[in-house]
Description:
Helix content is 53%, strand content 15%. It is built from 13 helices and 11 strands. Strands 4-5-9-8 form a 4-stranded antiparallel beta sheet, covered by helices on one side. It is globular, with a radius of gyration of 22 Å. Flavin-adenine dinucleotide (FAD) binds next to strand 3, strand 5 and helix 13.
Amino acid sequence: MTDFSMDLNEDQITLRDWLHGFAVNEMRPIAAEWDEREETPWPFIEEAAKLGVYSLEFMMNNFADKTGLSTMIALEELAWGDAGLCMALMGTTLGVAAIVANGTPEQQMEWVPQCFGTPDDIKLAAFGVSEPDAGSDVSSLRTRAHYDEATDEWVLNGTKTWITNGGIANVHVIVASVDPSLGSRGHASFIVPEGTAGIRMGQKFKKMGIRASHTAEVILEDCRVPGRCLLGGKEKLDEKLARVREGKKASSQAAMATFEATRPAVGAQALGIARAAYEFALDYAKERQQFGRAIIENQAIAFKLADMKMSIDAARLLVWRASWMAATRKPFVAGEGSMSKLFAGETAVKVTEEAIQILGGYGYVREYPVERWHRDSKIYTIFEGTSEIQRLIVARAISGVHIR
Ligand SMILES: Cc1cc2nc3c(=O)[nH]c(=O)nc-3n(C[C@H](O)[C@H](O)[C@H](O)COP(=O)(O)OP(=O)(O)OC[C@H]3O[C@@H](n4cnc5c(N)ncnc54)[C@H](O)[C@@H]3O)c2cc1C
């Protein structure tokens, strides 16, 4: 048992300070440029890999922290540096989380290193669930996986949309239906290795925020992957399907298992954006003079900053609690993972909006970073489950009622 402590240990402090320096030196100076360019920031990813921020080892070291806090501390600092650049590094971990949540130990050993590559040969991963007609309603996926017994291959067909690193990733993890009559209980996750025929990028989306992160459609046309690319293996899938068909409960749903594990990490990134905006607005309010005094001397401004700080601290407590619960294997009985992502995401939107208000016209123009932080923040109430879906999860968990 790892007791919860608000005192960071030496390793956590070292990690936080190292990444804060990385954010200050490697992210802040280039953030506006990559937001404008709206392209994958390869030189930045390469630099991050060289410095050990984009690597399997970095992820494993953070995961190894039994308190669960290291990953949260790391993500808060990176998103404080810039959320788009942070997502350019972290998009890969969505695919990795899917492999870890659903793959056998052998599959994890084989595929997870391939998601990162090496500093000289960078690789990316992607996780594809969402489809044009299946966003929040994951049960209605149309992408199908059909098993070809003669060749021991799975054949994937369908269109995925809004996929981070979609089409540029070296390893795609694709969630598809093997039995549409079973809804989400008939889903399975498949690795699509680099160089596989039948997978291609569709349109690349132009976005409001996190523009340094690539988001695109992924089109699968008779895309054949070897049988061993089914995460968890065929025996386990067949057993699960048999249980579901008999009316018994399935142990897990492929996509949901991944999202549940990654929600506090998404909340930690939202927290980083909120903190960036709050700190900037606080400094600005002390400097900016109107009517012969600093604008912070007006309660209307000072109270905003008090509320911003309070919400950020509350969000951090929820994020750390959820991550600690996950790391110490405490079940999320009241949707604590969802709560953390929901509260942190909405805090980021609110705090960045207030920061714009505190900066006035300077908050609205691109010369200052605050408008970018507001644009970046909005995605945190949408992806990995919208705020409404998070509320649904919490409401169902606390009530036991199947609220619609
Ligand atoms: C930048 C970006 C990156 C993304 N990255 C990925 C990725 O890497 N992999 C991936 O698989 N997906 C990814 N997504 C997809 C994302 O997870 C979905 O956009 C999200 O789940 C919402 O789905 P939707 O957009 O279809 O909205 P919809 O599901 O159509 O929802 C529209 C609105 O209806 C509300 N709504 C829907 N159902 C209910 C309900 N039952 N009760 C109350 N309200 C409801 C929603 O909350 C929302 O407000 C990404 C999206 C974006 C924009």
